[in-house]
Amino acid sequence: MAGTEENLNEMLLMRREKLNELIEKGKNPFLIEKFDYTHHSSTIRDNFEELDGQKVAVAGRIMSRRGHGKVSFIDLQDSEGRIQIFAKQDVVGEEPYKELSLYDLGDIIGVKGEVFRTKAGEISVRAEEVLIMSKSLQILPEKFHGLKDQDLRYRQRYVDLIVNPEVKETFILRSKIIKAVREYLDERGFLEVETPILNTIAGGANARPFITHHNTLDIDMYLRIANELYLKRLIVGGFEKVYEMGRMFRNEGMSPKHNPEFTNIELYQAYVDYEEMMRLTENLVAYVAEKTLGSTKISYQGTEIDLTPPWRRLDMEDAIKEYVGVDFSTINTDEEATEIAKAKGLEVKPEMTRGHIISEMFEEFCEQHLIQPTFIIGHPVEISPLAKRNPEDPRKTNRFEAFINTWEIANAFSELNDPIDQKERFMEQVKQKEAGDAEAHPMDTDFINAIEVGLPPTGGLGIGIDRMIILLTDQPSIRDVLLFPTMKPIGEE
């Protein structure tokens, strides 16, 4: 091991020595400010017949090189792929050709020359000028492979993107997916808005927030866990269709589906209900899949999933009846529900009611079965403090969660616009917080004031953008669709 480190240190030292030699020759690469390239590698390959014999300028990173006396071959990688550079001493000149020996893998160069095809059939650029513009003082790995390098890929995404250029395709597709979401909503009259990320109250969801402190005001503040309450204030103010896509922050566990900061979209539309939000959800997801992948039928990690609307609708109590064999329509008291839960092996806390137990039983036993797109409706009022009650069964709310591949990817309500009911539910949440529930919703008196001014009947929807992207890009983890996922610093593990 010590020998390997010594060799590595020696190689790194050699790179610095080559840099010094270039500087002594008046060729300091870090003084170069610009290079006017004319073509990317893919353009040259795709239009070879047209460009054959034409002069071009290309720029990129040296990924491999091999030499035969007075001839060198360099593989140059730019943002769109690779192209071979053919450098011959009697074309570039004796002294510039010698300087190629000072170039290493990873260096960034610009090349001017003529497009041609070698005898071996390789489309190439015959170099006439080669300019080094950045000296790589680190050594690129040959190729990341296997799980042992997974952490390094996430920590040093810049290296991952260089060595595994196919990774870029995931992030290009991510950008197209986000663009398609905006396109769908913009075309239907929704207005994109911006609301505060730094909040004085962590509201709009049940989650543990990140806490910070504002020195001038001398108050604690919170990174937003959701943007719901601000967006609903805008509906009160007279906007009819609004949305915001951006980062949310939750100080909770990490998993293949969870990162402390994540991208979410919330949208609100006046004068519609959660049924309309269901139609919007299934049509939006289908539109995005069709637009970016060319089909509403996708394969995720070997499982075929059909996103074509309409999606299945299933009441939470019916799901429990179907997958667990327990019929909550016949269970009316907290005591009965508690006994059933204990019999099924669930841990029941003292503050849990029938509604909480229904939710726990669904999460524990039903979610795992929801592979194809499914809307779960009929959520208990205890776990839905911002949703309207169902008039036919006031213990339930007019809410849905959309599940695909067992994951919740969307959550929506017919928004609660009764300020008296809302205040009572907030007060119940405050009791839960005082009893030790760190994720319970705090009291928000200004929001109560807003809906006392008057919130029209409104449908609201939140979609986990990262989870949707995981599915559409067929990636195993949220870390594979975030350019820079949250990682514990090296040395603190």
Q: Which helices and strands appear, and what pairs or packs with what?
A:
Elements: H1 2-24, H2 41-46, H3 48-51, E1 55-68, E2 71-78, E3 81-88, H4 89-92, H5 94-99, E4 108-117, E5 123-134, H6 150-155, H7 157-163, H8 166-186, E6 191-192, E7 198-199, E8 211-214, E9 219-223, H9 228-236, E10 241-249, E11 261-270, H10 274-293, E12 297-300, E13 303-306, E14 312-315, H11 316-323, H12 334-343, H13 354-365, E15 374-377, E16 389-390, E17 393-397, E18 399-404, E19 407-414, H14 419-434, H15 445-454, E20 458-464, H16 465-473
Parallel strand pairs: 3-5, 6-10, 14-15
Antiparallel strand pairs: 1-2, 1-4, 2-3, 4-5, 7-9, 8-9, 10-11, 11-20, 12-13, 15-18, 16-17, 18-19, 19-20
Helix pairs in contact: 8-10, 9-15, 11-13, 12-13, 14-15
Distance between the termini: 22 Å
Helix fraction by DSSP (H/I, runs of at least 4): 25-40%
Tell me the major beta sheet.
8 strands, mixed
- For this structure, what is the CATH class of the largest domain? Alpha Beta
* Overall radius of gyration: 29 Å
Any idea what the CATH superfamily of the largest domain is called?
Answer: Bira Bifunctional Protein, Domain 2
Average pLDDT for all residues: 94
Strand-pairing-aware structural class:
alpha+beta
Q: What is the spatial order of strands in the main beta sheet?
A: 6-10-11-20-19-18-15-14
The appropriate CATH architecture of the largest domain is 2-Layer Sandwich
Domains counted in the coordinates: how many? 2
What would you call the quaternary organization? Answer: single chain
How much of the sequence is in beta strands? 25-35%
Note poorly predicted spans. Answer: 144-148
Total helices: the number is: 16
Total strands: the figure is 20
Quick one: overall form? elongated
Annotated CATH topology of the largest domain? BirA Bifunctional Protein, domain 2
